[in-house]
Protein backbone atom coordinates (compact mmCIF):
# COMPACT_ATOMS: atom_id res chain seq x y z
CA UNK A 1 0.00 0.00 0.00
CA UNK A 2 0.98 3.61 -0.42
CA UNK A 3 0.95 5.72 2.72
CA UNK A 4 1.12 9.50 2.25
CA UNK A 5 2.16 11.24 5.44
CA UNK A 6 1.68 14.99 5.79
CA UNK A 7 3.95 16.62 8.33
CA UNK A 8 5.40 19.99 9.28
CA UNK A 9 4.73 22.93 11.53
CA UNK A 10 8.23 23.00 12.99
CA UNK A 11 10.65 20.22 13.80
CA UNK A 12 8.70 18.81 16.75
CA UNK A 13 5.68 17.61 14.71
CA UNK A 14 8.12 15.86 12.36
CA UNK A 15 9.72 14.11 15.33
CA UNK A 16 6.26 13.10 16.58
CA UNK A 17 5.09 11.64 13.27
CA UNK A 18 8.28 9.86 12.22
CA UNK A 19 7.80 6.65 14.29
CA UNK A 20 4.44 5.85 12.66
CA UNK A 21 5.83 6.58 9.19
CA UNK A 22 8.86 4.39 9.92
CA UNK A 23 6.60 1.61 11.20
CA UNK A 24 4.60 1.71 7.96
CA UNK A 25 7.80 1.48 5.96
CA UNK A 26 9.10 -1.40 8.09
CA UNK A 27 5.80 -3.21 7.47
CA UNK A 28 6.55 -3.11 3.74
CA UNK A 29 4.43 -0.17 2.64
CA UNK A 30 5.56 2.61 0.32
CA UNK A 31 5.85 5.88 2.21
CA UNK A 32 6.27 9.50 1.16
CA UNK A 33 6.21 12.40 3.60
CA UNK A 34 4.92 15.74 2.30
CA UNK A 35 6.20 18.69 4.31
CA UNK A 36 7.38 22.30 4.09
CA UNK A 37 10.75 22.71 2.43
CA UNK A 38 12.34 23.70 5.75
CA UNK A 39 11.64 20.21 7.16
CA UNK A 40 12.86 18.06 4.26
CA UNK A 41 16.47 17.65 5.39
CA UNK A 42 15.29 16.63 8.87
CA UNK A 43 12.84 14.06 7.46
CA UNK A 44 15.48 12.60 5.14
CA UNK A 45 17.87 12.41 8.09
CA UNK A 46 15.31 10.27 9.91
CA UNK A 47 15.43 7.79 7.03
CA UNK A 48 12.18 8.77 5.31
CA UNK A 49 11.56 9.88 1.70
CA UNK A 50 10.11 13.37 1.57
CA UNK A 51 8.70 15.90 -0.88
CA UNK A 52 8.79 19.62 -0.21
CA UNK A 53 5.36 21.16 -0.78
CA UNK A 54 5.74 24.80 0.28
CA UNK A 55 8.45 27.40 0.71
CA UNK A 56 6.47 28.94 3.57
CA UNK A 57 8.15 28.34 6.91
CA UNK A 58 6.55 27.83 10.28
CA UNK A 59 7.72 31.16 11.67
CA UNK A 60 6.25 33.18 8.82
CA UNK A 61 3.03 31.16 8.80
CA UNK A 62 2.51 31.94 12.47
CA UNK A 63 3.54 35.57 12.53
CA UNK A 64 2.14 36.91 9.24
CA UNK A 65 -1.26 36.82 7.55
CA UNK A 66 -1.75 35.58 3.99
CA UNK A 67 -0.92 39.02 2.62
CA UNK A 68 2.40 39.06 4.45
CA UNK A 69 1.36 41.55 7.13
CA UNK A 70 2.77 41.11 10.64
CA UNK A 71 0.17 40.05 13.18
CA UNK A 72 -0.31 41.35 16.70
CA UNK A 73 0.88 38.90 19.33
CA UNK A 74 -1.81 37.26 21.52
CA UNK A 75 -1.96 37.99 25.24
CA UNK A 76 -4.42 35.42 26.68
CA UNK A 77 -4.72 31.62 26.52
CA UNK A 78 -7.71 31.76 24.17
CA UNK A 79 -6.01 34.30 21.93
CA UNK A 80 -2.93 32.07 21.78
CA UNK A 81 -5.00 29.03 20.84
CA UNK A 82 -6.78 30.99 18.09
CA UNK A 83 -3.44 32.38 16.90
CA UNK A 84 -1.89 28.91 16.70
CA UNK A 85 -4.91 27.38 15.01
CA UNK A 86 -4.84 30.02 12.29
CA UNK A 87 -1.07 29.76 11.85
CA UNK A 88 -1.17 26.01 11.27
CA UNK A 89 -4.07 26.55 8.88
CA UNK A 90 -2.10 29.07 6.84
CA UNK A 91 0.80 26.62 6.60
CA UNK A 92 -1.61 23.86 5.53
CA UNK A 93 -3.21 26.08 2.90
CA UNK A 94 0.19 26.96 1.46
CA UNK A 95 1.09 23.26 1.25
CA UNK A 96 -2.18 22.08 -0.30
CA UNK A 97 -1.60 22.62 -4.05
CA UNK A 98 1.75 20.86 -4.26
CA UNK A 99 0.47 18.06 -2.02
CA UNK A 100 -2.51 17.63 -4.35
CA UNK A 101 -0.14 17.37 -7.32
CA UNK A 102 1.90 14.77 -5.45
CA UNK A 103 -1.23 12.74 -4.69
CA UNK A 104 -2.42 12.92 -8.28
CA UNK A 105 0.90 11.59 -9.55
CA UNK A 106 1.62 9.00 -6.83
CA UNK A 107 -1.95 7.84 -6.04
CA UNK A 108 -1.73 7.04 -2.31
CA UNK A 109 -4.11 4.56 -0.68
CA UNK A 110 -4.33 6.48 2.60
CA UNK A 111 -3.26 9.86 3.96
CA UNK A 112 -1.96 10.33 7.51
CA UNK A 113 -1.47 13.74 9.09
CA UNK A 114 -0.80 15.34 12.41
CA UNK A 115 -3.79 16.87 14.14
CA UNK A 116 -3.05 20.34 12.76
CA UNK A 117 -1.78 19.28 9.32
CA UNK A 118 -5.07 20.27 7.72
CA UNK A 119 -3.97 19.50 4.17
CA UNK A 120 -4.41 15.82 5.10
CA UNK A 121 -8.22 15.81 5.49
CA UNK A 122 -8.56 17.97 2.37
CA UNK A 123 -6.45 15.57 0.31
CA UNK A 124 -8.41 12.59 1.65
CA UNK A 125 -11.69 14.32 0.75
CA UNK A 126 -10.42 15.30 -2.69
CA UNK A 127 -9.30 11.78 -3.63
CA UNK A 128 -11.83 9.76 -1.65
CA UNK A 129 -9.26 7.87 0.40
CA UNK A 130 -9.13 7.13 4.16
CA UNK A 131 -7.74 9.79 6.45
CA UNK A 132 -5.84 9.08 9.67
CA UNK A 133 -5.24 11.92 12.13
CA UNK A 134 -2.83 11.71 15.05
CA UNK A 135 -1.88 13.94 17.95
CA UNK A 136 1.64 15.32 18.22
CA UNK A 137 1.67 15.64 21.99
CA UNK A 138 -0.70 15.59 24.98
CA UNK A 139 -4.24 16.18 23.74
CA UNK A 140 -4.90 19.91 23.99
CA UNK A 141 -7.34 20.68 21.19
CA UNK A 142 -10.03 23.21 22.07
CA UNK A 143 -12.97 24.65 20.19
CA UNK A 144 -11.06 27.93 20.02
CA UNK A 145 -8.07 26.75 17.98
CA UNK A 146 -10.18 24.44 15.82
CA UNK A 147 -12.60 27.24 14.98
CA UNK A 148 -9.69 29.57 14.23
CA UNK A 149 -8.29 27.02 11.77
CA UNK A 150 -11.73 26.50 10.21
CA UNK A 151 -12.20 30.23 9.70
CA UNK A 152 -8.72 30.60 8.21
CA UNK A 153 -9.38 27.74 5.76
CA UNK A 154 -12.71 29.10 4.50
CA UNK A 155 -11.35 29.54 0.97
CA UNK A 156 -9.99 25.99 0.77
CA UNK A 157 -13.08 24.42 2.34
CA UNK A 158 -15.47 26.29 0.06
CA UNK A 159 -13.71 24.82 -2.97
CA UNK A 160 -15.20 21.47 -1.94
CA UNK A 161 -18.50 22.87 -0.70
CA UNK A 162 -17.43 22.32 2.91
CA UNK A 163 -18.02 24.50 5.96
CA UNK A 164 -15.98 22.37 8.39
CA UNK A 165 -12.67 20.56 8.32
CA UNK A 166 -13.49 16.96 7.36
CA UNK A 167 -13.27 14.35 10.09
CA UNK A 168 -10.96 11.36 10.10
CA UNK A 169 -11.55 7.65 9.61
CA UNK A 170 -9.15 6.91 12.46
CA UNK A 171 -8.04 9.30 15.20
CA UNK A 172 -4.87 8.20 16.98
CA UNK A 173 -3.92 9.78 20.31
CA UNK A 174 -0.58 9.35 22.09
CA UNK A 175 -1.86 10.93 25.30
CA UNK A 176 -1.65 8.55 28.29
CA UNK A 177 -5.30 7.75 29.12
CA UNK A 178 -5.04 9.21 32.63
CA UNK A 179 -4.02 12.56 31.11
CA UNK A 180 -6.83 12.85 28.54
CA UNK A 181 -9.15 15.75 29.41
CA UNK A 182 -12.82 15.26 30.14
CA UNK A 183 -14.79 15.48 26.92
CA UNK A 184 -11.82 14.62 24.68
CA UNK A 185 -12.71 13.14 21.31
CA UNK A 186 -12.76 9.33 21.30
CA UNK A 187 -9.51 7.97 19.93
CA UNK A 188 -7.36 4.93 19.35
CA UNK A 189 -4.46 5.05 21.82
CA UNK A 190 -0.92 4.62 20.54
CA UNK A 191 2.34 4.31 22.41
CA UNK A 192 4.48 7.40 22.02
CA UNK A 193 8.02 6.66 20.88
CA UNK A 194 10.91 9.08 20.22
CA UNK A 195 11.48 10.27 16.66
CA UNK A 196 14.25 12.81 17.18
CA UNK A 197 17.56 12.93 15.29
CA UNK A 198 20.59 11.10 16.64
CA UNK A 199 24.35 11.73 16.71
CA UNK A 200 27.44 9.87 17.92
CA UNK A 201 27.08 9.22 21.65
CA UNK A 202 29.54 9.98 24.42
CA UNK A 203 29.43 8.04 27.72
CA UNK A 204 28.08 10.99 29.75
CA UNK A 205 25.02 11.13 27.51
CA UNK A 206 23.76 7.74 28.69
CA UNK A 207 25.32 7.46 32.16
CA UNK A 208 25.50 10.14 34.84
CA UNK A 209 27.79 10.49 37.84
CA UNK A 210 27.05 10.60 41.57
CA UNK A 211 25.33 13.99 41.63
CA UNK A 212 21.65 14.52 40.74
CA UNK A 213 21.41 15.46 37.07
CA UNK A 214 19.24 18.37 35.89
CA UNK A 215 18.48 18.53 32.18
CA UNK A 216 17.50 21.92 30.74
CA UNK A 217 16.13 22.46 27.23
CA UNK A 218 14.06 24.96 25.29
CA UNK A 219 13.25 22.56 22.47
CA UNK A 220 13.31 23.03 18.71
CA UNK A 221 11.37 26.30 18.90
CA UNK A 222 14.56 28.00 20.10
CA UNK A 223 15.62 28.14 16.45
CA UNK A 224 13.01 30.80 15.64
CA UNK A 225 11.91 32.11 19.09
CA UNK A 226 14.57 34.49 20.45
CA UNK A 227 13.31 34.29 24.04
CA UNK A 228 14.16 30.57 24.07
CA UNK A 229 17.81 31.15 23.26
CA UNK A 230 20.60 32.33 25.52
CA UNK A 231 18.20 34.53 27.53
CA UNK A 232 16.19 31.45 28.55
CA UNK A 233 19.19 29.57 29.92
CA UNK A 234 21.32 32.28 31.50
CA UNK A 235 18.99 33.05 34.48
CA UNK A 236 18.46 29.33 35.12
CA UNK A 237 22.16 28.61 35.23
CA UNK A 238 22.69 31.48 37.65
CA UNK A 239 20.18 30.39 40.29
CA UNK A 240 21.40 29.18 43.65
CA UNK A 241 20.60 25.48 43.15
CA UNK A 242 22.04 24.98 39.69
CA UNK A 243 25.09 27.15 40.33
CA UNK A 244 25.94 25.45 43.65
CA UNK A 245 27.84 22.52 42.20
CA UNK A 246 25.62 20.10 44.11
CA UNK A 247 23.88 19.05 40.89
CA UNK A 248 25.15 18.23 37.42
CA UNK A 249 23.64 20.39 34.69
CA UNK A 250 23.14 19.29 31.09
CA UNK A 251 21.72 21.69 28.50
CA UNK A 252 20.16 20.44 25.27
CA UNK A 253 19.98 23.25 22.72
CA UNK A 254 21.19 24.34 19.29
CA UNK A 255 24.95 24.39 18.88
CA UNK A 256 25.31 28.19 18.48
CA UNK A 257 23.52 28.74 21.81
CA UNK A 258 25.44 25.87 23.42
CA UNK A 259 28.77 27.41 22.42
CA UNK A 260 27.85 30.64 24.21
CA UNK A 261 26.76 28.73 27.30
CA UNK A 262 29.94 26.66 27.46
CA UNK A 263 31.98 29.86 27.31
CA UNK A 264 30.02 31.49 30.14
CA UNK A 265 29.45 28.36 32.26
CA UNK A 266 32.43 26.05 31.70
CA UNK A 267 31.23 23.44 34.23
CA UNK A 268 28.08 22.50 32.32
CA UNK A 269 27.62 20.07 29.46
CA UNK A 270 25.77 21.76 26.59
CA UNK A 271 25.11 20.96 22.97
CA UNK A 272 22.69 19.60 20.40
CA UNK A 273 21.90 16.31 22.12
CA UNK A 274 19.74 13.22 21.49
CA UNK A 275 17.05 14.19 24.00
CA UNK A 276 15.60 10.69 24.30
CA UNK A 277 18.98 9.24 25.34
CA UNK A 278 19.91 12.00 27.79
CA UNK A 279 16.41 12.10 29.29
CA UNK A 280 16.87 8.62 30.70
CA UNK A 281 19.72 9.87 32.91
CA UNK A 282 17.96 12.95 34.35
CA UNK A 283 16.56 13.34 37.85
CA UNK A 284 14.75 16.53 36.81
CA UNK A 285 14.07 18.28 33.50
CA UNK A 286 13.49 22.03 33.28
CA UNK A 287 11.99 23.27 30.03
CA UNK A 288 9.67 25.63 28.15
CA UNK A 289 6.61 23.38 27.81
CA UNK A 290 6.93 22.17 24.21
CA UNK A 291 4.69 19.20 23.48
CA UNK A 292 7.28 16.77 22.10
CA UNK A 293 9.72 17.70 24.86
CA UNK A 294 7.00 16.88 27.40
CA UNK A 295 6.30 13.51 25.79
CA UNK A 296 9.99 12.60 25.58
CA UNK A 297 10.33 13.22 29.31
CA UNK A 298 7.08 11.46 30.23
CA UNK A 299 8.26 8.45 28.24
CA UNK A 300 11.53 8.46 30.19
CA UNK A 301 9.77 8.80 33.56
CA UNK A 302 11.44 12.12 34.40
CA UNK A 303 9.85 14.70 36.74
CA UNK A 304 9.42 18.06 35.00
CA UNK A 305 9.63 21.72 35.98
CA UNK A 306 7.90 23.72 33.27
CA UNK A 307 8.44 27.42 32.58
CA UNK A 308 5.89 28.06 29.82
CA UNK A 309 7.12 30.14 26.93
CA UNK A 310 3.49 30.69 25.94
CA UNK A 311 0.45 30.57 28.20
CA UNK A 312 -1.20 27.77 26.21
CA UNK A 313 1.72 25.42 26.97
CA UNK A 314 0.50 25.27 30.55
CA UNK A 315 -2.93 23.87 29.59
CA UNK A 316 -1.93 20.18 29.14
CA UNK A 317 0.75 20.40 31.86
CA UNK A 318 -1.87 21.11 34.52
CA UNK A 319 -3.03 17.52 34.11
CA UNK A 320 0.53 16.26 34.61
CA UNK A 321 0.82 18.51 37.68
CA UNK A 322 -2.39 16.96 39.03
CA UNK A 323 -0.73 13.52 38.71
CA UNK A 324 2.14 14.75 40.88
CA UNK A 325 4.75 14.31 38.14
CA UNK A 326 5.54 17.96 37.43
CA UNK A 327 5.36 21.56 38.60
CA UNK A 328 4.28 24.21 36.11
CA UNK A 329 5.10 27.82 36.93
CA UNK A 330 3.40 30.84 35.40
CA UNK A 331 6.00 31.70 32.74
CA UNK A 332 9.61 31.42 31.61
CA UNK A 333 10.35 34.77 33.29
CA UNK A 334 9.80 33.61 36.87
CA UNK A 335 12.32 34.93 39.45
CA UNK A 336 15.39 32.70 39.62
CA UNK A 337 14.87 31.81 43.26
CA UNK A 338 11.28 30.76 42.57
CA UNK A 339 12.65 28.36 39.99
CA UNK A 340 15.36 27.13 42.39
CA UNK A 341 12.78 26.46 45.12
CA UNK A 342 10.56 24.47 42.77
CA UNK A 343 13.52 22.48 41.42
CA UNK A 344 14.74 21.68 44.94
CA UNK A 345 11.24 20.50 45.89
CA UNK A 346 11.11 18.02 43.02
CA UNK A 347 14.63 16.72 43.65
CA UNK A 348 14.00 16.21 47.37
CA UNK A 349 10.56 14.60 47.08
CA UNK A 350 10.73 11.08 45.60
CA UNK A 351 6.99 11.08 44.87
CA UNK A 352 7.60 13.19 41.76
CA UNK A 353 9.93 10.54 40.38
CA UNK A 354 7.55 7.73 41.35
CA UNK A 355 4.58 9.45 39.70
CA UNK A 356 6.59 10.22 36.56
CA UNK A 357 7.62 6.57 36.32
CA UNK A 358 3.99 5.58 36.71
CA UNK A 359 3.08 7.64 33.66
CA UNK A 360 6.00 6.12 31.74
CA UNK A 361 4.63 2.69 32.55
CA UNK A 362 1.21 3.73 31.29
CA UNK A 363 2.74 4.89 28.00
CA UNK A 364 4.69 1.63 27.65
CA UNK A 365 1.47 -0.36 27.91
CA UNK A 366 -0.20 1.28 24.90
CA UNK A 367 -0.29 -0.26 21.39
CA UNK A 368 2.95 0.32 19.48
CA UNK A 369 3.00 2.14 16.10
CA UNK A 370 3.30 -1.23 14.33
CA UNK A 371 -0.12 -2.20 15.72
CA UNK A 372 -1.59 1.08 14.44
CA UNK A 373 -0.22 0.34 10.97
CA UNK A 374 -2.25 -2.89 10.98
CA UNK A 375 -5.38 -0.89 11.82
CA UNK A 376 -4.65 1.50 8.95
CA UNK A 377 -4.26 -1.47 6.59
CA UNK A 378 -7.79 -2.54 7.50
CA UNK A 379 -9.13 0.93 6.69
CA UNK A 380 -7.73 0.67 3.19
Automatic annotation (TrEMBL):
<dbReference type="GO" id="GO:0016758">
    <property type="term" value="F:hexosyltransferase activity"/>
</dbReference>
<dbReference type="GO" id="GO:0008194">
    <property type="term" value="F:UDP-glycosyltransferase activity"/>
</dbReference>
<feature type="domain" description="Erythromycin biosynthesis protein CIII-like N-terminal">
    <location>
        <begin position="100"/>
        <end position="219"/>
    </location>
</feature>
<dbReference type="InterPro" id="IPR002213">
    <property type="entry name" value="UDP_glucos_trans"/>
</dbReference>
<dbReference type="InterPro" id="IPR010610">
    <property type="entry name" value="EryCIII-like_C"/>
</dbReference>
<feature type="domain" description="Erythromycin biosynthesis protein CIII-like C-terminal">
    <location>
        <begin position="243"/>
        <end position="379"/>
    </location>
</feature>
<dbReference type="Pfam" id="PF06722">
    <property type="entry name" value="EryCIII-like_C"/>
</dbReference>
<protein>
    <submittedName>
        <fullName>DUF1205 domain-containing protein</fullName>
    </submittedName>
</protein>
<dbReference type="InterPro" id="IPR048284">
    <property type="entry name" value="EryCIII-like_N"/>
</dbReference>
<keyword id="KW-0808">Transferase</keyword>
<dbReference type="Pfam" id="PF21036">
    <property type="entry name" value="EryCIII-like_N"/>
</dbReference>
Amino acid sequence: MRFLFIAGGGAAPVHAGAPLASAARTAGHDVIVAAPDENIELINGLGLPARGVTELGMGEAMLKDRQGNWLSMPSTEDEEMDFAGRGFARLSAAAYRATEELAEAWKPDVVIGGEYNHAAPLIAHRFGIPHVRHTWAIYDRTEVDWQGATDELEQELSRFGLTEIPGSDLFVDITPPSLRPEGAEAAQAMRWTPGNPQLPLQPWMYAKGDRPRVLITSGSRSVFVPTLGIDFFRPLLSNSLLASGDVEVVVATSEPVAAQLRAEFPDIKAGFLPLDVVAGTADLAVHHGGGVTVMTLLNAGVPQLVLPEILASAIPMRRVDAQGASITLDSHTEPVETVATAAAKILSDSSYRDNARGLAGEIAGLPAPAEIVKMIEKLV
